[in-house]
Amino acid sequence: MRNLILKFAASARAAGLRIATSEVLDCLEQIKQIDVLDEPQFAAALRANFAKSRREQHRFNHLYRLYFHELREDMEMGFCDSLADHTEDLLDALRHDHEGSAELPALLDFLAGDPLAYLDLLRRIQSEGEGRQHGLGANLGSMVRRLPIMFAIDRSRKAIDLFLLAQRDQIPWEARRDLKKHFNQRLDIALRLLTTAQLPEDTGPNKITSYEKRLARLGEQSFNSLTPKEVEEMRAVVQQLVRKLKDVIGRRYAVRSRGVLDVKKTLRRAAQYQGIPMQIVFRKRPPSKGRIVVLCDVSGSVWSSARFMLNMLYSLQACFARVRSFVFIAGIDEVTHFFDAFEINQAIEKVLHEADLAYGAATDYGLTLREFKSRYMDALNKKTTVIIIGDGRTNYANPEVSILDEMREKSRRLIWLNPETEQFWYSGDSEMRVYETCCHEVRACRNLNQLMAFIHDLVL
User: Fold this and answer.
1) pTM surpassing 0.85?
2) What domains lie within the chain, and their CATH numbers?
3) Which residue in 202, 205, 240 sits closest to 219, CA to CA?
């Protein structure tokens, strides 16, 4: 056991872990106090002495698995002492085949179960790329150093096949099978270590996916293609974006609420201080907040985009005087009371299941606009921004363009958000060609980036 731990410590040093002699001695003393056959205890004792940070713990776990599991001396399928002579003959054949190769000794030691020289070789190759500037050719040196090792691994596979083929009369086929499997497994491990080795700063828990990277990854993904897990992740991202927007908006309103400089009152106050303007006076002009009216199509795939839009609008409703929400399929119903009475995500679920709508009906934009005109047209005035979320597909019913034109005249702005791909806007039963003539603005809103761009323009 002592020699095994000393060999592991040497291999760990070769891989870049900082292990002092005193730490090895401490580990050897602690091993006497535990049951070495209990692997969790054994691994914990080694980890406590050889890994001194979270980064080193990740590297230690990798080396421990490599040394004590992947490179164990016996094979799973019948590798025993009777094959030792054949193993030496095979290694001699590889040595002869690669004669003159600088990488051969390290690779042969690795195949024989001693990873020390090979890990040291990989560490020296990695160190060549550290401290260099990024850019074209920055990693060229380490790549060139890896190529001979890759060629040596490939040539070793072929040499093993040729050796076993030449020895088919001297070695039984079961032994040849086990030898081939054993050495191919170790060559696979050597290739994996060579091609997937990471620089220290990119190792383990220190590799942190930043907020910007996470946002960029989700930002371009269509709302319709999100999995349930990604929906939850998207909600967390939306909450962070909302907090950030609220901070920006709060600062802007704080500045605007101060008003513009009142020169006359400032000079009048300055008379008290011999003409020095010690007190600056501003004209108090509290910022005006707009009103939002949202008409949201909740049929089919449109809802997957609309739920995020409603989420952000109601999360930012402190920036608006009032947000009124209506959902429609074939007919319309106001659902503002859900958002007033429940938390945002719970309210959205209730909207999806408890609104006074025929959820199984075909979408009818014409009927929706007629009902809105007869029941809710008084909700619009010149301080109101109307936002319609839908794909504009009317199932060939009357689109009632004149009503939409009237809504535009009564409101401050009329904006249409379409979650469908733009190339399909004018196909089939879509009436976007006529609807967009009645709107101040028409936008595609299929993913978070497009949604955020719209929110910025709306509230900032």
Assistant:
1) no
2) 2-127+139-206 (no CATH), 288-459 (3.40.50.410)
3) 240
